[in-house]
Write a structure and sequence with these properties.
Blueprint (H helix, E strand, L loop, with lengths): L7 E7 L4 H11 L7 E6 L17 E5 L5 H11 L4 E5 L4 E2 L3 H9 L6 E9 L10 H7 L10 E5 H7 L12 H11 L3 E10 L9 H4 L3 H12 L3 H5 L6 H19 L3 H23 L6 H28 L12 E4 L24 H10 L3 E7 L2 H4 L4 H15 L4 E5 L15 H10 L6 E5 L2 H10 L2 E4 L7 H6 L7 H9 L4
Parallel strand pairs: 1-2, 1-4, 2-3, 6-8, 9-10, 9-12, 10-11, 12-13
Antiparallel strand pairs: 4-7, 5-8, 6-7
Helix pairs in contact: 8-12, 10-11, 10-12, 11-12, 13-19
């Protein structure tokens, strides 16, 4: 990279918080070269459109997830982008005035084995008093590793590992998980010299209880990355073992009292009280010790141990068996006749291009998740003299009108005896589509109704899914490794990661 930002896109997932305006103002007034694009990913289930119109911003595009969570929002952002680098920013940070310039310098001439560059974070704390428990917790972001408050990744690195694991429902651990998977490929992550400010968001007194839901995500991290994941991710264990012990003491006290053993119950209750008091003081002592803060720490310190233990146990049950995250494919290619549209042999009449049930909805669902779509179609009628190439093109234009837009349209006009490399089951069209869109064949899925479609996918190094019709040969159906009853079901499998 030559140091400019034309090969980078800034992606900001947002739920429409007021802090987004502060971020956009900072990006509009910052000095330095602008990136190719700024993509705002609106992750609200509904709401009025975002209005990012400010002079000084790079070209802005807004896309919507419908409320899929931060991991899905970031995935949609990078899948929508087409640049070499994707720079993620959270919607509650404030980049320094020279952030664009520093980003360009950080990304310039990085070796090929460097997959990501993390920015530096400052968290301002009150200068005139001790910080509260919530403020101290937020300040930990300044020393955290691989957080996407400001982290730029090569798009190819994101694609290779399937992006963010959407099984992490919160803005917690999903960035550490991604970093570990990227580094597992042999790539490196480095720290740059650019800075952002991460203000402490206002929060109610129960925020420390709600964030205990992240204990379930810690279980998922252990399942995915093994017992040493905390060391690799620079994520300290914290007080979960103590929380488990305090909770066990409380349960023992209740059980012993119910069983008519008051002395033993009193001992267990004393252990619970001592553990709770120690935890509360550990949080109160370094803080401002105002009446409100002390009351909040006392109340939440009694609640956090059982809540943390509950979420940890929930994670143990929920994540008993987990597979490595594969994510969505980068490209899904469809056979045309018999798969997207009803098969009228050697059709050259656009009026007879008639989509199968659910075709438009299936394609739109893929597009909405940032997956590119295309068509690979054998048209031997041209070689046989039954239709012209112009008629084929007219039918393809009609297909795009009804079901489009498509990112690639590949047609083979040859006959079965012409010995070409493009006619399915040969892999030529699949490889050409991947090359055109700069997609690794391993991140491509081909959906078709006959064995030649699946064989072409496998020959190209892609994944084939067969959607048989009444005319599909039984032997071809039995030979297909992946099958779906309908086009809609095939796309369901792709979007669920079953490909």
């Amino acid at each position: 990279m030559d140091g400019g930002l034309g090969t980078s896109t800034v992606v900001v997932p947002t739920i429409g918080r007021p802090s987004l305006d502060v971020l956009l103002d900072a990006l509009a007034t910052a000095s330095g070269p602008r990136p190719a694009e700024l993509i705002l990913v609106d992750d609200r289930p509904a709401g009025s459109p975002l209005r990012p119109d400010r002079p000084g911003l790079p070209p802005v595009r807004v896309v919507r997830t419908g409320g899929g969570g931060p991991a899905r929002a970031r995935n949609l952002g990078w899948r929508t982008a087409r640049t070499e680098w994707i720079a993620f920013l959270d919607d509650d940070v404030v980049p320094d005035p020279d952030w664009y310039q520093r980003l360009a310098e950080d990304l310039a001439r990085l070796p090929a084995d460097v997959a990501g560059s993390q920015g530096r974070v400052r968290v301002p704390l009150p200068p005139d008093r001790r910080p509260t428990d919530w403020e101290r917790g937020t300040a930990g972001l300044a020393t955290s590793s691989w957080i996407t408050a400001d982290l730029a990744y090569r798009r190819a690195a994101l694609s290779a590992v399937g992006g963010f694991d959407e099984r992490f429902p919160r803005a917690f651990r999903e960035d550490s998980d991604l970093a570990l998977r990227v580094m597992d490929t042999g790539a490196r992550l480095v720290r740059g010299r650019r800075w952002i400010t991460h203000p402490v968001r206002p929060a109610d007194r129960w925020i420390s209880v709600r964030v205990q839901a992240g204990n379930a995500d810690d279980v998922l991290m252990r399942r995915l990355h093994g017992p040493d994941w905390r060391t690799r991710a620079d994520a300290p264990l914290g007080r979960r073992p103590q929380h488990t012990a305090v909770t066990a003491a409380a349960l023992a006290a209740a059980g012993l009292a119910a069983g008519g053993r008051p002395r033993a119950a009193a001992v267990a209750a004393a252990a619970w009280l001592a553990g709770t008091a120690e935890f509360a003081w550990a949080r109160i002592a370094p803080g401002p010790r105002t009446r409100a803060e002390v009351a909040t720490m006392a109340a939440t310190s009694a609640l956090i141990p059982p809540v943390a233990t509950w979420h940890w146990l929930r994670g143990v049950v929920r994540h008993r068996r987990v597979a490595r995250w594969r994510g969505l494919p980068d490209l899904v290619l469809f056979d045309r006749d018999g798969t997207l549209v009803h098969d009228f042999p050697y059709n050259g009449d656009p009026d007879w291009v008639r989509p199968v049930a659910g075709a438009k909805e299936a394609l739109d669902r893929l597009r909405a998740r940032g997956v590119r779509v295309g068509v690979v179609s054998n048209q031997s009628g041209v070689a046989r003299g039954l239709i012209t190439r112009e008629q084929v093109d007219a039918c393809m234009d009609r297909l795009a009108e009804l079901l489009g837009p498509f990112d690639t349209l590949q047609v083979c006009p040859h006959g079965p005896d012409d010995g070409c490399s493009c006619r399915k089951p040969a892999p030529g069209m699949v490889k050409a589509a991947c090359a055109q869109l700069d997609v690794e064949p391993a991140r491509c899925v081909v959906i078709g109704d006959i064995g030649a479609d699946v064989e072409a996918a496998e020959a190209a190094g892609a994944v084939g899914i067969m959607v048989p019709t009444p005319v599909t040969r039984r032997a071809e159906v039995q030979a297909a490794a992946r099958r779906a009853q309908t086009l809609t079901a095939a796309v369901d499998d792709v979007l669920a990661g079953r490909w």
